[in-house]
């Protein structure tokens, strides 16, 4: 097995690698990218405080042996280099040798750090090397994820099928964009993922690939190979000398990032079953939450959250702190039967503590700053916005156009909202804004110069005229 050649870690593309490192990089242009190159295809605007430069970690392996199939077409075709969305689990570890065997290609593994936790990132270098990957790239995308993807959805009020805050759906386009960027940098002619043919994520990844670089080939092993389950995957791994860690398999299928965690499978496959208490990972049971409430204040600018209890925070840190606070009060649990893109229904349980608090606050602040007609139109468009995001159409011109509308009408959504957190609930206790449309001198029951009680007489007669005419017709008057 090839030996580890070099590990390069740096905080900004502007910092040049050493001469020694350059010699090992050879033609790998990833570390020579201009600072703007990884953001050329990102949304037009960034929100909140400027994030720290991304930390990019490239792991290169010397003289990794590519099978003889690299010199000729593989069993299914011929590709030069493939960028694989890599988690380090059994499935993606098996995908690496499968790609080499079937497409005769070099495999570059990519992992996005979206806040899934350090435990899921441990040992990826060794796993990628053992599986036969020629390069592993790990990118810290937490701030970009929240700032450029999560917060626009929050501003739009996008909630899928009444409950789902789109935690997984929002994450896929940011991963896909990074994969396309890396493919361009390393000269790959294809991208690949380990999504199954029944799920939503295959659609989300591939629509993003199509939108960002239609020239790239897309390989989806689960739609091609003969592996039908975990046992087949283990046998394939053994056959190709890919070490399989002996660990207890989780009975749930989970996806975690800074915004949420989702649980599927096992007893949840029957919608009649109550989720088990020990299944949850981010939130305590509301019954076990503190007996005393906790109050928080969220500050907003232009519809985007920027502060917690008067302290300005970066988008990622703001969500992280609210996750911790909301989690200890049991906030953000959702049990949902949803409609997948591919037609079937599925049942999932989501934990989104910080997101639930933010959505509650954002919607409430708008009651101060937006008029009735604007609120109604915004709510109707939010349904379509959520549908587009869920269906993987983040880079669709329609979604981008709707985002421009949401940005425009949020110009006055600035202020703060106070909430009471208590045993699973986040209740608004107060809100204020310098652009508030609420006027105490007008809304008061006392008479004033601007509004005269008697003015309502003519309004009521005109407003109720259609109803009065209908009643007169029905009664022969």
Automatic annotation (TrEMBL):
List the molecular function annotations (GO) for this entry.
Answer: argininosuccinate synthase activity; ATP binding
**Pfam families, alphabetically?**
Arginosuc_syn_C, Arginosuc_synth
Listed GO CC annotations: cytoplasm
- Single biological process term from Gene Ontology: urea cycle
- Sorted alphabetically, which keywords does the UniProt record give? Amino-acid biosynthesis, Arginine biosynthesis, ATP-binding, Ligase, Nucleotide-binding
User: Pathway of this protein?
Assistant: Amino-acid biosynthesis; L-arginine biosynthesis; L-arginine from L-ornithine and carbamoyl phosphate: step 2/3
- Where the record annotates domain Arginosuccinate synthase-like N-terminal, the positions are 81-243
Question: PROSITE patterns in the record, alphabetically?
Answer: ARGININOSUCCIN_SYN_1, ARGININOSUCCIN_SYN_2
Q: What PANTHER family does this protein map onto?
A: ARGININOSUCCINATE SYNTHASE (PTHR11587)
- Quaternary structure annotation from Swiss-Prot or TrEMBL: Homotetramer.
Recorded protein name is: argininosuccinate synthase
The organism of origin for this protein? Medicago truncatula
